[in-house]
From TrEMBL:
This is 7TM diverse intracellular signaling domain-containing protein. The chain crosses the membrane at residues 192-213, 220-241, 253-271, 283-308, 320-339, 344-365, 385-404. The keyword Kinase applies. Residues 192-403 form the 7TM-DISM receptor extracellular domain. Residues 412-442 form a coiled coil. The keyword Transmembrane applies. CDD domains: HATPase_UhpB-NarQ-NarX-like.
Length: 634
């Protein structure tokens, strides 16, 4: 064991010297690069304002020994407009020329590459202009001759965006497409999450369109616009990740903000319509409308600065102001919902709160120099990830709020339909009552006219015929007697019609009294005694004139048959009143003989038809005499 310890210590010291020797030598050996080699340790760094140094002046700049770790993750917004310089040494100790590619990072708008061969004072310009013009966009190439040592100086200018980063590499030609593909897939998990978020928003687009076409809810067209632009934003963020193309440069520096602002504009518009803020919440309506106008003005100012100026600071400030205005609007909405304590607003406000927290943290990562570092998963350093999570949380609470609102709308719709139905039924009932009242008034008028006009005339005819008979004594013509008899019958029928038509007689107790009065009067001059079995108290249940008339005529026909054919000495009229009105007329005559049915068969048929016309029932049978039963549900 004691022999092993000195050997281990010697090995550790030797490895330390080898490591020091490798780090102290800042010259990069081109032939030793097998595929790609990160050169941030061997690269000196300088950042300055846009002065336009000559290559000779660049070589005399005070370069830092290493690239600051911050710039390897992202370029702070305050430094995006500045010029960045690299300087490193390359050696080709081979007997043949070597061809290499250089990737400075993402995303370069302009790049100049100079080479100064050791021992030579002249500086060669290898590349100048946009890196998008090269075979591999974003990558520049240079050649080292056999046994050549040189100092490479790179001058770079970034696009006006917050996604720039420095990741200098020297790459072998065969490995360039592989490396570019690999770098695009570095944050694969981030891209998958972004694609999923875009897919969720796409489903919300279809859902919004379905709700619009089914319910004609115009506010869902506005939400469809919000989800459409937001899904486009997320799709391009994932699809164009680290893709050095002209469209991606335009997207990252300008178009992504315009898409996001347009999406939020539609969302503010939707929120106003969905919450009905104009009618219900005037304060929040003014805040949302003001932010809509501010968003449109922000897009116009941002567009002017992008197309007509070269400054990124102004662009970034306008973008941050607009985004913070959205956050302030969300905060105002949350406070308003807390004050109002309205459930629909509270659900939307909860989603807004989670979105607000995620947006503020995302803005902090964009504008701050501090991040979690390279030791944590790249997902946690991605500002877009937090924004996506906020959007998903806001979407979840929006769906809950939508379900709640739909439930409220269904209840309100059902209540309104019920109210309209009740109002319609009430109107119909009032119309029916008015019609019945008009009919009753007309019946009363006709009965009064018949009583006053026809009644007096017929009575006069009867009296005159009786006077004629009295004056003629025994010489009276038989026609005069028939006139008197017909007038008397006509008076009785007319009285029955008048009784039927008067609305004040529309009750069972009145029917019972009228039948009693008529039966006694009709049988007064006969040998038939009439008895009544009525309930002690007959309820005043309403019974229409048509029903009273048909029941009375059936009773009249029965009494007439009894007098003519029954040879009876007694008639008993029984009335039972319950759910069904039952009138029973029973005599003690000879009963119903089959040979006599034909004799007054038409009367029986007419009585049955009369009862059926008022939904009643007629029955006649023999039981120690003739029994006639009239029944009617009341």
């Amino acid at each position: 064991m004691e022999r092993i310890r000195p050997l281990f210590l010697s090995f550790f010291i030797l490895c330390s010297f080898v490591s020091l020797a490798q780090t102290s030598d800042s010259t990069i050996s081109g032939p030793s690069i097998r595929a790609a080699h990160r050169i941030w340790k061997e690269t000196k760094f300088y950042m300055g304002d846009e002065i336009g140094y000559t290559p000779q002046e660049v070589l005399r700049l005070k370069f830092l020994d290493t690239i600051p770790s911050l710039y390897r993750m992202k370029i702070p917004p305050r430094d995006v407009n500045k010029d960045f310089y690299f300087k490193f040494h390359v050696a080709n100790d081979m007997d043949s020329a070597g061809h290499y590619y250089f990737l400075p990072g993402f995303f370069m708008d302009e790049i100049d590459l100079y080479k100064q061969i050791d021992g030579d004072t002249t500086i060669q310009t290898i590349v100048s202009g946009s890196p998008l013009k090269n075979q591999y966009q974003g990558v520049v190439d240079f050649t080292m001759q056999a046994n050549e040592k040189a100092t490479i100086v790179v001058k770079m200018k970034f696009i006006r965006a917050t996604v720039n980063a420095l990741e200098p590499r020297i790459i072998q030609p065969y490995f360039v497409p592989i490396l570019l593909t690999s770098l695009r897939n570095t944050n694969k998990l981030n891209q998958v999450i972004t694609y999923i978020t875009a897919g969720v928003l796409l489903m919300m687009i279809f859902y919004s369109l379905a709700v619009y076409f089914l319910n004609s809810s115009k506010e869902f067209i506005l939400y469809c616009g919000h989800a459409l632009f937001l899904s486009i934003l997320f799709f391009f963020k994932a699809y164009l990740f680290r893709w050095p193309s002209a469209f991606n440069y335009f997207f990252e520096s300008y178009f992504d903000f315009v898409i996001q602002s347009t999406s939020f504009y539609f969302f503010l518009f939707f929120l106003r319509k969905f919450t009905e803020s104009k009618e219900k919440y005037p304060v929040i309506e003014k805040i949302l409308l003001a932010d809509q106008v501010f968003t449109v003005v922000g897009i116009l100012v941002f567009s002017y600065l992008y197309f007509f100026t070269d400054s990124f600071i102004g662009l970034n400030q306008v973008e941050m102001i607009i985004k913070y205005s959205w956050s302030i609007t969300a905060a105002c909405f949350i406070v308003f919902a807390i004050i109002k304590k309205q459930q629909l607003l509270s659900l939307i406000a909860m989603g807004h709160f989670l979105l607000l927290v995620s947006v503020l943290f995302s803005l902090y990562l964009i504008s701050s120099d501090k991040r979690f570092g390279s030791r944590v998963d790249p997902l946690l350093n991605d500002s877009l990830f937090y924004y996506e999570m906020g959007v998903v949380c806001e979407l979840i609470f929006f769906l809950i709020a939508l379900a709640f609102k739909n439930r409220q709308d269904i209840i309100a719709s059902a209540t309104e339909k019920e109210r309209l139905l009740l109002a319609h039924e009430r109107n119909q009932l009032e119309k029916q009552i008015a019609i019945i009242e008009a009919q009753q008034q007309e019946r009363n008028r006709i009965s009064a006219d018949m009583h006053d006009e026809l009644g007096s005339g017929v009575t006069a005819i009867r009296l005159l015929s009786e006077l004629v008979k009295a004056k003629m004594k025994g010489d009276a013509l038989p026609e005069v007697g028939r006139i008197s008899s017909s007038a008397n019958d006509l008076i009785n029928k007319m009285n029955t019609i008048i009784w039927t038509m008067k609305s004040s007689n529309d009750s069972i107790d009145n029917l019972a009294a009228y039948i009693r009065s008529y039966a006694l009067e009709f049988l007064e001059n006969t040998s038939i005694d009439c008895f009544f079995k009525y309930p002690p108290v007959i309820p005043g249940i309403e019974l229409s004139g048509e029903k009273r008339r048909n029941i009375f005529l059936c009773v009249k026909e029965t009494l007439n048959n009894t007098v003519k054919h029954a040879e009876a000495t007694q008639v008993v009229i029984t009335m039972d009143v319950g759910d069904v009105l039952i009138l029973t007329l029973k005599d003690n005559g000879v009963g119903l003989k089959k040979e006599e049915i034909r004799q007054f068969g038409n009367g029986i048929i007419n009585m049955r038809k009369r009862m059926e016309s008022i939904d009643g029932h007629f029955e006649i049978y023999e039981d120690g005499g003739t029994v006639t039963v009239l029944s009617l549900a009341i």
